[in-house]
C-alpha cells in the first residue's frame, strides 16, 4: 500500500468534519473520493496533505508515519496536491509556475546562485528541461509564456497539474479536477489522469462528475457526513444500498452531480 | 552564444554608468556628491527591504530600526570603543543579522497587517532604546567623529569620491544579490510565498524557514546600509533610526518598484533628488510630493522599474508575435537567456 489512512478524525469545535475514516491508496491505481457536499472530502484531503492536523488517527505513506506533518514536509515526502479552486501563481507565466514547482525541490542555496556554482547551473538547466517536458506532457506547451491569470480555465487546471508534477510526487491528489470545465474537456482530463498513472504516479481524486469517476477509478471511497459509508470497486460501490440512499439516489448516474457542483460554475455540464 | 540585445540590460548599464561617472561630473559640486553618498547608503537598506517586502511579500516596518542598529554599532564602536572601521562594519552586519533573526522568530508568527504592526512596534522599540539609553548611545547629544574607512594602500577614503566608489562596490553587491534572487530557485521560492503561502507549501516549500531567512538577510542589509551611513555622515543622532526613516525607505522602494533589481537604487536617488529640488519648501515638500506618490500608486503600482519591465515585456511579446507571423514559422524559438522573459511584473 502506498498510503494507509487509519481512523482519521477531525473536529472543528463540536463539528465532526471527518470521523474515523480508514482506507488505502494502492500504488499505481486511481482512488476516488466521493460524497455529497459537506461530506468531508476536502477536509480529508487537507488532513492527508498536512494542511490540517488530525484530531485522531494516522496517515502512513510508504510505510512511514506522516500524521500531522506540516504541508511542505508531506509534499517533500512525495505527496502532491491541487486545490479545488485552481491555485496558480497567477501573475507569473505558465512556465514560471512549473519552474516554481522545480524550485521548491531544489537544494541549491543563495550561495550557489551568487557564485553560479556548477550545482546551480546544473539545477537551472534541469529545471528548464523538466518544465518543458511537463508542459508538453500536459499539452499546454504553447501557453508557456502566457500569464497564468489570462489563460483558459482548462489550461489553468492542466498547469496546476504540471506544477504539482514538477515536485516529482509518487502520489498526486486532485481536488475536483473537472469542476467548471465542459464534458469534452472532462473527457480529455480523464485521458491526462490515465497518462499520469502510466508515468508511475498514483492518483487520488475528489470529484463530483460520476462519468469521470466510474470510468477512471480502481477503487472508490464514499463519505457521508464525515463518515465512510462505502469503500470498494466502482461496481461494489454502485450497488451498495447505503451509497444509493445517501448519494447516488435511485441508481441514476451523472444527474446527481448537478446539485453538488453548485458552488462551481459548471457550464455545459449535463447539457 | 548569440549576443542578445536586452533592453533591461541596457537600462541597468545606463544606471551603472551614470553612477560610475557621477563623481567626475559632480567634481565641483561636493554637496550633490554628498547627497548621492547618503542616497546609496539608504539604497543598500532599501535592497534589504526589497527582499522581505518585494520578494516574500511581508511588509516590514522595522527596517528603520535595523538601519539604526547598524548606524549606532558603527558610530559607537569606532568612537567610544575605538574599533577600526572594518571591524565595526563587520560587527554591525553581524549584530543586525542576529537581531533580525531573533525578531523574525517572533514577528513571523504573525501575518499580513499584524506582521506590519508587530514590526512597526519593534522599530519603535529600537528607536526608543537608542534615543533614551543615554549612558550608552548619548541619546540626543548624538555621536561625533564616526570613523571613515582606514586607508587601503593608496586609497584615501576621506576623499569623498573614493568613499563614494567604496559604497558603489557595496551597492553593486546588493544589486547583484537581488538579481541572483530574481533568476534563481531561491528567489522563486520567495516569490511563490508572496503569491500564495498555501500553494507554496503544497509544492514543498518550507514557508516559515524561507520567510525567516529572507527577514534575517533583509535586516543584515539594512544594518550594512546603516553602518555605511554612519561612517559617511561622521555625526549621528537618534533620528537615523526613527519610524520616519522606515517610511522613507518604504517610499523609495515603492517608487522604484518592488522585487525589481534596479528599483531600489533608482527609487531612492530619484526621491532624494526630488527632496533636494523641493528643499526651499522645507516642511511643505511632502505636500508637493504627496500627489506625485499618489499618482504613482494609481498609475504604476509596480513602481517605475516595475512599470518599465512590464512595458518591455509587452513590447517584446508583440515583436515576437509579429516576427512569427512574418516568418511563418518560429525560427529562433527561445531567446538565449530564458530569464529575460521573466513575466514577474508586479
Please tag this protein with its features:
heterodimer; A: 271 residues; alpha/beta; Rossmann fold; 2 domains; six-stranded mixed sheet; four-stranded antiparallel sheet; 11 helices; globular; disordered C terminus; B: 346 residues; mainly alpha; ABC transporter involved in vitamin B12 uptake, BtuC; 14 helices; ABC_AA/LPS_Transport (chain A); ATP hydrolysis activity (chain A); transport (chain A)
Secondary structure elements and pairings:
The complex is a heterodimer of chains A (271) and B (346).
Chain A (H helix, E strand, L loop, with lengths): L2 E10 L2 E11 L4 E5 L6 H8 L7 E6 L2 E2 L5 H7 L1 E3 L12 H12 L4 H6 L2 H20 L15 H13 L5 E5 L7 H16 L3 E5 L3 H7 L2 E6 L2 E6 L1 H6 L1 H8 L8 H4 L11
Parallel strand pairs in A: 3-8, 3-9, 6-7, 7-8
Antiparallel strand pairs in A: 1-2, 1-4, 4-5, 9-10
Helix pairs in contact in A: 3-5, 3-6, 5-6
Chain B lengths: L6 H19 L4 H26 L7 H17 L5 H23 L4 H21 L1 H4 L22 H24 L1 H11 L1 H6 L4 H27 L9 H14 L6 H15 L7 H15 L3 H25 L19
Helix pairs in contact in B: 2-7, 2-10, 2-11, 2-12, 3-4, 3-5, 3-10, 4-10, 7-8, 11-12, 11-14
Amino acid at each position: 500500500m502506498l498510503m494507509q489512512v487509519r481512523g482519521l478524525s477531525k473536529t472543528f469545535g463540536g463539528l465532526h468534519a471527518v470521523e474515523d475514516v480508514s482506507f488505502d491508496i494502492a500504488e499505481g491505481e486511481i482512488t476516488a473520493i466521493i460524497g455529497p457536499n459537506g461530506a468531508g472530502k476536502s477536509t480529508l484531503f487537507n488532513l492527508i496533505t498536512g494542511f490540517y492536523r488530525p484530531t485522531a488517527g494516522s496517515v502512513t505513506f510508504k510505510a512511514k508515519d506522516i500524521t500531522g506533518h506540516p504541508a511542505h514536509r508531506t509534499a517533500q515526502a512525495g505527496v502532491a496536491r491541487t486545490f479545488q479552486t485552481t491555485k496558480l501563481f497567477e501573475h507569473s507565466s505558465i512556465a514560471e509556475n512549473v519552474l516554481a514547482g522545480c524550485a521548491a525541490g531544489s537544494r541549491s542555496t543563495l550561495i550557489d546562485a551568487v557564485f553560479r556554482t556548477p550545482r546551480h547551473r546544473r539545477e537551472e538547466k534541469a529545471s528548464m528541461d523538466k518544465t518543458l517536458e511537463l508542459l508538453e506532457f500536459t499539452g499546454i506547451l504553447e501557453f508557456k509564456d502566457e500569464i497564468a491569470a489570462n489563460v483558459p480555465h482548462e489550461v489553468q487546471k492542466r498547469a496546476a497539474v504540471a506544477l504539482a508534477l514538477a515536485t516529482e510526487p509518487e502520489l498526486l491528489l486532485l481536488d475536483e479536477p473537472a469542476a467548471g470545465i465542459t464534458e469534452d474537456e472532462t473527457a480529455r482530463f480523464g485521458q491526462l489522469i490515465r497518462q499520469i498513472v502510466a508515468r508511475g504516479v498514483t492518483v487520488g481524486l475528489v470529484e463530483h462528475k460520476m462519468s469521470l469517476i466510474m470510468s477512471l477509478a480502481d477503487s472508490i471511497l464514499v463519505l457521508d457526513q464525515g463518515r465512510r459509508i462505502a469503500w470498494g470497486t466502482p461496481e461494489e460501490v454502485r450497488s451498495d444500498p447505503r451509497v444509493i440512499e445517501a448519494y447516488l439516489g435511485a441508481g441514476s448516474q451523472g444527474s446527481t452531480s448537478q446539485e453538488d457542483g453548485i458552488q462551481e460554475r459548471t457550464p455545459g455540464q449535463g447539457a | 552564444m548569440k549576443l542578445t540585445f536586452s533592453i533591461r540590460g541596457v537600462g541597468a548599464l545606463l544606471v551603472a554608468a551614470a553612477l560610475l561617472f557621477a563623481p567626475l561630473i559632480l567634481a565641483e559640486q561636493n554637496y550633490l556628491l554628498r547627497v548621492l553618498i547618503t542616497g546609496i547608503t539608504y539604497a543598500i537598506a532599501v535592497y534589504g527591504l526589497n527582499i522581505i517586502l518585494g520578494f516574500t511579500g511581508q511588509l516590514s516596518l522595522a527596517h528603520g530600526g535595523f538601519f539604526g542598529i547598524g548606524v549606532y554599532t558603527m558610530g559607537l564602536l569606532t568612537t567610544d570603543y575605538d574599533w577600526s572601521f572594518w571591524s565595526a562594519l563587520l560587527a554591525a552586519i553581524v549584530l543586525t543579522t542576529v537581531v533580525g533573526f531573533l525578531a523574525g522568530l517572533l514577528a513571523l508568527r504573525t501575518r499580513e497587517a499584524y506582521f506590519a504592526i508587530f514590526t512597526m512596534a519593534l522599530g519603535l522599540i529600537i528607536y526608543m532604546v537608542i534615543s533614551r539609553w543615554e549612558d550608552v548611545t548619548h541619546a540626543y547629544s548624538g555621536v561625533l567623529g564616526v570613523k571613515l574607512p582606514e586607508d587601503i594602500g593608496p586609497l584615501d577614503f576621506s576623499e569623498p569620491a573614493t568613499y563614494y566608489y567604496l559604497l558603489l562596490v557595496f551597492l553593486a553587491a546588493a544589486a547583484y544579490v537581488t538579481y541572483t534572487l530574481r533568476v534563481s530557485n531561491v528567489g522563486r521560492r520567495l516569490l511563490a510565498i508572496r503569491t500564495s503561502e498555501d500553494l507554496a507549501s503544497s509544492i514543498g516549500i518550507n514557508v516559515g524557514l524561507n520567510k525567516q531567512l529572507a527577514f534575517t538577510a533583509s535586516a543584515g542589509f539594512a544594518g550594512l546600509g546603516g553602518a555605511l551611513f554612519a561612517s559617511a555622515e561622521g555625526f549621528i543622532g537618534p533620528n537615523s533610526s526613527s519610524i520616519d526613516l522606515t517610511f522613507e525607505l518604504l517610499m523609495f522602494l515603492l517608487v522604484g518598484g518592488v522585487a525589481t533589481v534596479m528599483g531600489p537604487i533608482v527609487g531612492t536617488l530619484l526621491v532624494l533628488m526630488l527632496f533636494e529640488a523641493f528643499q526651499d519648501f522645507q516642511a511643505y515638500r511632502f505636500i508637493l510630493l504627496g500627489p506625485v506618490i499618489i499618482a504613482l500608486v494609481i498609475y504604476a503600482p509596480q513602481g517605475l522599474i516595475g512599470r518599465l519591465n512590464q512595458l518591455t515585456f509587452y513590447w517584446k511579446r508583440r515583436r515576437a508575435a509579429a516576427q512569427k507571423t512574418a516568418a511563418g514559422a518560429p525560427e529562433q524559438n527561445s531567446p538565449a537567456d530564458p530569464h529575460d522573459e521573466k513575466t514577474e511584473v508586479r
